[in-house]
Every structure is written in C-alpha cells, then in structure tokens.
UniProtKB/TrEMBL annotation:
InterPro entries: C2_dom, C2_domain_sf, C2C_MCTP_PRT_plant, C2D_MCTP_PRT_plant, QUIRKY-like
Record's subcellular location: Membrane
Domain C2: 25-148, 191-319
Name of this protein: C2 domain-containing protein
A GO CC annotation given for this chain: membrane
Similarity field: Belongs to the MCTP family.
Superkingdom, natural source: Eukaryota
Organism: Vanilla planifolia
Keyword terms: Membrane, Repeat, Transmembrane, Transmembrane helix
C-alpha cells in the first residue's frame, strides 16, 4: 500500500505529510515530528492602584490593626506597605503591576491583612474581580476609582466562625483603581535581544516597514545528545522566534547533519530587533509517561539583528551554535541559514529611527528596573505555559527565551 503526496511547503497538507526520515517512528508520535507555526498569547499589564480602605472590622477589636493589602493574580502576588494609621481607615496609594494573557483565566483577588504578631497575619476581608470586567486603557488618561465591599474569610480563622449567622458578611470596603494597560509593550525577552516593541493595543500599532524571510537549510557537526545502538545521535529540529510568531521545523531523526530546507516569513515593524533560531533535540519520541514530561534539550542558538542586514540582500552563511554551560561557552555545531530583510519604504524606515524605541507609555509612566525584571520573568512563564499546552506542545520556547 502506497500513498504519494506531491506539493510544496506552502500547501496546507505539508505539515501532515510523511517523510522517509520518520518511517521508524510510531504513528502516535508522528505529531511531534511535523513542522508547525505557533502564536504567542496576547499579553497585558494589569495595574492595580490600591488607594485606601475604610471601616475595617479586625478580629481583635482591643487594638488598632497594622494593615496591608495583598493582590493576587494567578501565581503572582504583591502587597503594599503596612499602614501605621491608628484607626480603622488606612491609606496606601500604591501601584502594583502584573502580567496576564488572553484569554483571561485568572481573577484579581484583593485581600486586606492585619499583622497580629511577628509571623502571624489575619485576613480582615477580601474581594475578587473578574479580568473580563476590568477597563482597558490605551493612553495615560486618568481612570475613576471604585469602592469594593470586603467580604469576611468565613473559611479562615476561628474568630470568624464564631460570628452569628445572621450578621452581614461585610468587614469594610477598599478603594481601588484597576485597569489593563494596553499602551505598554509587555517585555517577555531581554531588552537587548527583543524581537518586538509594539504596544499591546493593536490600534496603536504603526504600519509594518518590511518583511523578514528566513530559510532554515540544515546543520552539520552537531554533538550527540543521546546514544542509540552504542553510537551517539540526536533528533534535531529548529525553533525560530520573531515577534509573536514562533515556527518549529520538522524533526530529522537520528542524524547529526540534518537537512530541513524550510522557509518562513514575518512582518517587520522595527529594524532594531533580533530574530532567534535555536536547535533542539526532540525527546518526545519515546513511549510512556517519560516522553510526556520530558524536556527537549537545547543544542545551541543563533541571534541575528535585523539592523545589521542590508535591504533586499540574501545572506547565506553557516552560523556557529553556541550554548552557555557551567564550563563556559561551548560550540555544539553549525547551522546554515538564508535570511533576507526587504524594506517596503525607505521613508518609513527613516521615520522609525526618529521615534523612541519603546511605546509612549514607557516614558510617561516608566517602570522601575526591578518591576521590569519581575514582569519579564512572569511573562516568560506565561508564554512558556501557554505554548506548552498547544497541540502538539512547543517545549523549546524556554531555551529561546533564556
């Protein structure tokens, strides 16, 4: 029985086509061999401005509470400073920043805590806000704050359980200004090697200035990452990332000099950006649970800055695959790439160099270095988790981000 397919990479059937180099792989693992295009989730900054709380009802009414507010979004948690006001009303006026991705899966949970001892905090009240109901802001305009009722933590300390059942479930109120800030670019890469600087809000995007074409031709001299029949081998594939678009080539099985010959394109909005290409060893081809939880090993990666490329010129070179380990930088082989950047308008290109690199909000309300590092780490974790849940999962995004 024989099935013959003739076509090019542009055909829809290309990712599903069988190749002779995958004939030794079982049918259940073929999906982990094929090439595929992925798109990063749309990332937003969430700004929660915790202003004040009033009419708090602490558990211990014989003392004035030492209160702070805590905001939790998914696995991200931040808190304000402890208020020293000697009353039941407290003021903070602090901005807390978080990263979320569409479609929104998290709730914004705000809780007010009382420090009753050196290592003991009690929850006075809490409120949960759906991100679907949060206002989206694309500029620096002021937003109206809102009052939210704090509900008691009925499943918490014993003092709440002793309350009468007919008592109102209210322990005060908190004033918060919360929004999804779409005027920023959510950094999920190192600023020096970023592939994108567009703001989250699509209505703020400038027109594209060109097209990037990348041909992933092949590799040679790859160092073996596993043994098969007493000899070293590897199952190599490439992941290329630029902007929100990720591409994964097919896996060439049991070959230290694989040939891919695949071509991909991206729209370019900023020339001072970097395209990253990584070579990985596919560890998803074994049967059992080990294959599902296995992490693909990075062999090496290459970064190419678009501003160093002459427009409309094709560059075909062998690039060294470098990886940083405990003993220093090590060469793991070479990859052959063909790359071309085509500028659509020279005038638009010159105009780009007259504008700041980041969107306007980064300069009107700049984030601190500490905030940027923390938010970048959270953004990387979110992107890796979302792409890891794709079908088939993309398990090489962590090595590209590093």
């Amino acid at each position: 029985m024989l099935a013959v397919w003739i076509g090019s990479q542009a055909d829809e059937a290309f990712p599903e086509a069988w190749h002779s180099d995958a004939a030794c792989i079982s049918k259940e693992h073929v999906v982990n061999l094929r090439s595929k295009v992925y798109v990063s989730p749309k990332l937003w900054y969430v700004r929660a401005n915790v202003i004040e709380a009033q009419d708090l009802q602490p558990c211990d009414k014989t003392r004035f509470p030492e209160v702070y507010a805590k905001v939790v979004v998914g696995n991200q948690a931040l808190r304000t400073k402890t208020s020293q006001n000697k009353s039941i009303n407290h003021m903070w006026n602090e901005d807390l920043m978080f990263v979320v991705a569409e479609p929104f899966e998290e709730q914004v949970v705000i809780s007010v805590h009382d420090k009753v001892g050196p290592n003991k905090d009690e929850v006075i009240g809490m409120v949960s806000i759906s991100l679907q109901k949060v206002e989206r802001r694309m500029d620096s305009k002021a937003l109206n704050s809102k009052w939210y009722i704090l509900e008691k933590n009925l499943d918490g300390d014993d003092c709440w359980k002793k309350k009468k059942r007919n008592e109102a479930n209210c322990s005060g109120r908190i004033r918060i200004r919360i929004c999804l800030d779409g005027g920023y670019h959510v950094l999920d890469e190192s600023t020096n090697y970023s592939s994108d600087f567009k703001p989250t809000g699509k209505q703020l995007w400038q027109p594209s200035i060109g097209v990037l074409e990348l041909g992933i031709l092949g590799a040679q001299g790859l160092l073996p990452t596993k043994t098969k029949d007493g000899r070293g081998t590897t199952n190599a594939y490439c992941v290329a990332k630029y902007g929100q678009k990720w591409v994964r080539t097919r896996t060439v099985v049991d070959n230290l000099s694989p040939k891919w010959n695949e071509q991909y394109t991206w729209e370019v909005y900023e020339p001072c950006t970097v395209v990253t290409i990584g070579v990985f060893d596919n560890c998803q081809l074994q049967s059992g649970e080990k294959s599902i939880s296995a992490r693909d090993n990075i062999i090496g990666k290459v970064r190419i800055r678009l501003s160093t490329l002459e427009s409309d010129r094709v560059y075909i070179h062998w690039y060294p695959l470098l990886v940083l380990n405990n003993s220093g930088v090590k060469k793991m082989g070479e990859i052959k790439l063909a790359i071309r950047f085509t500028c659509l308008s020279l005038l638009s290109m010159l105009h780009i160099y007259l504008r700041p690199l980041l969107p306007r909000m980064h300069y009107l309300y700049p984030l601190s270095i500490g905030q940027l590092d923390m938010l970048r780490h959270q953004a990387m974790q979110i992107v890796s988790a979302r792409l890891g849940r794709a079908e088939p999962p993309l398990k090489g995004c962590g090595g590209i981000h590093a």
